[in-house]
Each structure stands twice: as C-alpha cells, then as structure tokens.
Amino acid sequence: MQQNNSSKHSSGDMRIGMALAADRVMTGVFYLVAGFFLVLLFAFAGYIIIKGFAGAKLYMFAFAKGGIGNQFFNTVYLVFLALLISVPIGILSGVYMAEYAKPGRVTHFLRIAIETLSSLPSIVVGLFGYLVFIVLTHAQWNLFSGALAVSILSLPLISTTTEDALRSLPESYKKGSLGMGATLRQTIVTVLLPAAAPRIITGVILAAGRGFGEAAALLYTAGMSTDINWTVWNIASPTCALNPFRPGETLSLAIWGARTEALSADSAEIANLSSAVLMIMVLTFSILAHTLEGRIKKKMGDTK
Amino acid sequence: MNNVETIDRSTGRGSSAGPMIRARDIGNFPKEHVWNGFVKGAGIFMIILPIAIGIFLFIKGCGTFTTYGHSITEFLFSADWNPADDSAGGGTVGAAVYIVGSLYTCGLALLIAVPFSLAAAIFMTEIAPVLGNRFLKPAVEIFVGIPSVVYGWIGLTILIPFLKAVFHLNQGFSVLAAGIVLAVMIFPSITTLSADAIRGVSMDCRKGAYGMGATRWQVIYQIVLPAAKPGVLTGIILGLARAFGEALAVAMVIGKTRAFPKSILSATSNLTSAIASDMGGAMEGGEYNTALWTMALLLFLISLLFIFIVHQIGKHGETENAAK
Asked: How far is CA B64 from CA A100, A220, B68, B92, B298, in A?
C-alpha cells in the first residue's frame, strides 16, 4: 500500500501535500469516531435509565408478584453468595501466583488455567453448573447453584487482580517484614495483603458489577421463577428470602424472560425497569471501582 | 502428606535467615501448615476447575458420537438437524446451520467493531491523550460491564423495529442485528486492549519517524500500528472469543430460524442461542439434550483455540522483538 502511494505520486510536493491532507482528514475521522462513541455510550445509558423509569408504575417496585423487588433482592443476594465463595479462593490463588509459584511448568499451566476460566463462555459455565449442581445433586433450580456458577466466572478476575496488586507493591515491604523475622505467612497476611487491599477491593467491586448482569450462567442454575414470602423467616422454608436453596430469578433473567411478551401485558415495562435498575447498579459499581483505582494511582504517584 | 516440603518452602523463602525463622516460629507451625495448605489448595483448585469443566463437557458432549453413533463430520457439516428428544435416538444432529450462524454473526461483528475500536484506541493514545484518558477511556471501561441481556433487550426493542422500518422487512430479526449487538458488546474490550498495546510502543519509534518529517497519520499508520500489531491482534481475538460465547443478547435478536442465512438481513440461529433456548425443554440424557451438550463442548474447544492463538501471537511477538 505504502509503495503504491509513493510510486503514484512521484512529484515530491504533491506527495507532501497528500500526506498533510491525509493527516488532516484522518485526525478529523478520529475525533469523529471518538465523539460518536462518547455520545452513543451516554445516550445508551441515559435512554435505558430514563425509559425504564418513565414507563414504571408504583406497583412494579413492590417486593411481591408483579413487581421487581424480589428479583432485585435475588440479584444482590446471589452476587453476595457468589463473592462469599469466590473472594477467599480468588485471593488465596492470587497469593499463590504472586508469592509461592515458582516459574516452571506448573505455574505456566496455572496461568493458562486461569486464562481458560476467564474466557469461558458464560453459557458453558451455566451448563456445567446445571450438570454438577442441579442434575447430579437432584436439586431443583436454586440460588446457591447460581451463586456457584457466578463465582466460577468471577474467580479469574479476583485472582488476577490480587496477583497484580501484590506484584505492584514495593519489594521493600516484603524484605523489611521478612528481615524482622516474620514468616512468609505473617508477611503476607499482616503486611502485603493490607497494603494491596484497595486494589483487591477494586477487583471485587468490578466482579460484583459483572455478577449483577450475569444471565446466561443462571438460566439453568438459578431458575426463572421466584416466590418469596417476606413474613417467613425460617431459613429452611422454600419461601424464605434468605434460603439459598430456593429458585431465585434475578433482574437479568427477568429481562430475558420478557422477550417473549407472553407473560403479562406489562412485561415490556417490567423489562425496561429491570434494565434501568440493572444499569444503575452496574454503573454505580464500575464508577466506584474506577474512582478507587484513580485514587490508588494518584497515591502511588503514577509510577509504574 | 508433604509436611517436610511445606516447611522447607515456607522457611526457605527467608533466604539466609531461614534457619532462624524456623527456630523462632516453632509455635506457629500449625498455622503455617494450614496457611500453606489453603494457598496451595486454592492454586490447585484453579487448575482443577477448568479441567473438571472440560472433562464434564467432554463426557456429556461425546455422547452424540458414542451413545447415539453419529459421526463428527455429520455434526459439523450436515445441516440436517432433527435429534430425537428421547434416549432411543435415531434422529439427525447436523449442527452446520448453528456453526455457520455463529461464524457469520461473529465475523460481521468484528468487521463492524474493529475499525471503530482501532480508531477509538488511536484517538485516546495518539491524537488526544488528555481528552482520551479523561473521558473516552473511563467511559469505554465502564461500558465493558453493561450486562449482555440489556444489550439484547435494547436490540430487541430498538434495533429490530429500526431495521424492520429501514429495510422493509417482515421481521427485523437478522444476522445484521446480531452483528451490530455483538459489535457494540465487544467494542470496549478491543479498544482497551488495543490502546494498551499502542501505548506500549516505545516513544523512540515515534520520535524517529517524526524527526524524518512524517505526519502524525504516517507515524500512526506506518510505525505505531505495525509495532502494536501483536497486542492489537490479541485484543481482536479476545473480542472474538467474547462474541462467540455470547448467548442471550444474540438469542434475542437473531430470530432463531434454523436455516442458513440467505443474506445479511435474514434470520438464522447460532450455537449459543440454540443451547440457551432448547436445553431447558430437552429430556436429560436424550439425543437432543446430548447434541446440545456437544455444541457446548464445541464452544469450549473454540475458546481453548482462541487462547492458543493468543499465546502463539505472544510468542511470535517476543521472538520478533528479540530478533530486533
């Protein structure tokens, strides 16, 4: 391409003129594309949120049938359960990667394993969850197996952020602590992990944000129905809100369910509202994570 | 099991101070053991998990070929899809329509997303770094997290009616709709990874080119982009992987019509939406169910293939750099 250009325009002046013109045109194109996307993204978010709330009626916010309150609760509860599982395992495996793993075949393999996990299609994880947590245990759809599926999806993110966070700490932290006679465990638990905490928390917040919107992995694990009786507080009861072994439709599943429009007359409005609420949750969490990250970068003086 | 080994490792880390630590922390030994056990256990768990997923998928997915005796070529290349929904079998399991649907929509999504992503990445690194870093980059990163069902829902309620009106279609469900939705979904990840790659190109390359009198576009097109190529390709492959595995957003707009798409505007189906919509109704262990598992296995193998390609690109980039 480059050679074509130069042979076509043999005259020097013309070539320079062409080059300058091309430069100006392309600069314009880049500004246009960037502006277009910024506008598109904001319009997208704004549209979903405004449309969702504009079409909403008061009863849709109810924590009962016909409202999305229960779905909202299920979403939060499911992500909470998922983090309860994935945060300890993710942090520990991140510690292993950063502090224990020696360069070699096993570490290489572990890295590939984590990469594989992070690029697994969520529907595949959902099917795996369906097979292992539902079919093999002869259970019905339940929140807990949904949480397990989501935790599989968030594990690699938490693990890699922990590893990165530990690796980005100054070497002197570790040396100082070890030099004082602390064991590696004491160093990690009392010095390194607290120092890396802000970054790890950022990763966990991001993981939570992703978890809110997960749907494909929950389709065949958490189930498409929810029945909560808010007066029952016996955790073994199938209608108790806190019982993790009850079916628990989340907001994202409610949107998926509304696509056929056969459920009820207002299913489109419900889906719009669910999208809006989901959008707000996801945006809040991502903005929170980015603000935190910005603070950390500032604190470290942007030295990287 | 490996007590001796754990002690050696935990103390050996303190290099020359090792023996001293061992003497002082005898009281801590149980704690050290438990800690080491947990950390290593977590590491091992991360290895076992994807292997377990792979094994389960393999066992379930191979049923099509072992239990029901279909050939791999039938599954991959035949368009005759009519599996029996019971364990007697005897149906046909040609998944070519779904495979072509996946390839077609993802190819289209890449075609749409890559130019825009590259332009956005170049904008935030080369053209206006301050503007880009302050506004575009955070916006793009935040939008990575938008749930796929929301994209699907917006596609269903806005894009489909729009396409219907513009192209005078009976129904707007189409390859084009799926391609657009996927393109919007993968745009942020390709942009972020490409921008990282472009940022990683050494300043000297740019300075040298500018010093020779090159314009900015010439520097970008002839110096920066070629130098950032491995990273950009990695971004594109990872975007493609995301598009390939995306289920619900595509299922909402593709139309789920089991036929090869005649044009970009006709409805078809793909692997993920077939699994998402049909798995629930199929009898566990039946031929239909097993064929869907085989599709899931195929998705898994494809995502492994993408990782392999990314690694090959990485290796290639390294050797190229070393040669320089």
From this structure: 42, 21, 5, 10, 12
Instruction: Determine the average pLDDT of the residues in A149-170.
Output: 94
**CB-based burial, B303-320: b 16+ in 10 Å, e otherwise:** bbebbebbeebeeebeee
Judgement on whether residues A152 and A257 belong to the same structural domain of the protein: yes
Least confident among A29-33, A49-53, A81-85, B28-32:
B28-32
Tens of pLDDT, residue by residue over A69-124, are 888 999 999 999 999 999 999 999 999 999 998 888 888 889 899 999 988 999 99
Q: Is residue B90 within 8 Å of B290, Cβ to Cβ?
A: no
Q: Does A29 touch chain B (CB under 8 A)?
A: yes
**Structural domain count, chain A:** 2
Asked if A128 is an interface residue toward chain B (Cβ–Cβ < 8 A), one would say: yes
What CATH number did the domain enclosing A220 receive? Answer: 1.10.3720.10
pTM (2 decimals)?
Answer: 0.86
User: Same domain, yes or no, for A108 and A174?
Assistant: yes
**Which chain A residues in 50-79 lie under 8 Å from chain B, judged by CB atoms?**
none
Average pLDDT of chain B? 84
**A91 and A29, same domain (yes or no):** no
Does one domain contain both A145 and A83? yes
Looking at the fold, whether A212 and A289 belong to one and the same domain comes out as yes
Run of H or E residues at B141: helix B137-143
- Alpha-carbon distance of B180 to B159, in angstroms, equals 9
- Residue A291 belongs to domain spanning: 57-299
Residue A268 belongs to a domain: yes
Apex B113 CA angle, B274 and B205, nearest 5: 140
- Assigned domain for A304 exists: no
The C-alpha of A296 sits at a distance from chain B's nearest C-alpha, in angstroms, of 15
**Residues A66 and A114 grouped into a single domain:** yes
Instruction: Please answer whether residues B145 and A206 qualify as being in contact, where contact means their C-beta atoms are separated by less than 8 angstroms.
Output: yes
Q: Is residue A247, in this structure, part of any structural domain at all? A: yes
Boundary of a domain, candidates A52, A77, A92: A52
Smallest CA–CA distance, residue A282 to chain B, in Å, is 7
Residues A236, A240, A244, A246: what is their CA dihedral angle, to the nearest 10 degrees? 90
Q: Do A20 and B24 touch (CB under 8 A)?
A: no
Listed by start position, the domains of chain B span 3-61, 93-323
Radius of gyration of chain A (CA): 25
Q: Is A155 domain-assigned?
A: yes
Same domain for A274 and A147, yes or no, is yes
Are A95 and A221 found together in one domain? yes
Tell me whether residues A215 and B123 touch, CB distance under 8 A. no
Tell whether A297 lies on the interface with B, counting CB pairs under 8 A: no
Which of A100, A124, A189 is the best mutation test for B, with the most CBs of B within 10 A?
A124
| pLDDT band at A258; cut points 50, 70, 90 | confident
CB contacts of B145 in chain A (<8 Å) are 206, 209-210, 213, 282, 285-286
Separation CA A153–CA B118 (nearest Å): 28
The C-alpha of A195 sits at a distance from chain B's nearest C-alpha, in angstroms, of 19
Residue B318 CA to residue B324 CA, distance in Å, equals: 10
CB burial class (10 A; 0-12, 13-18, 19+) of residue B192?
buried
CATH architecture observed for domain B93-323: Orthogonal Bundle (1.10)
Rounded-to-integer distance, Cα B292 and Cα B295, Å? 5
- Does any CB of chain A come closer than 8 Å to the CB of residue B6? no
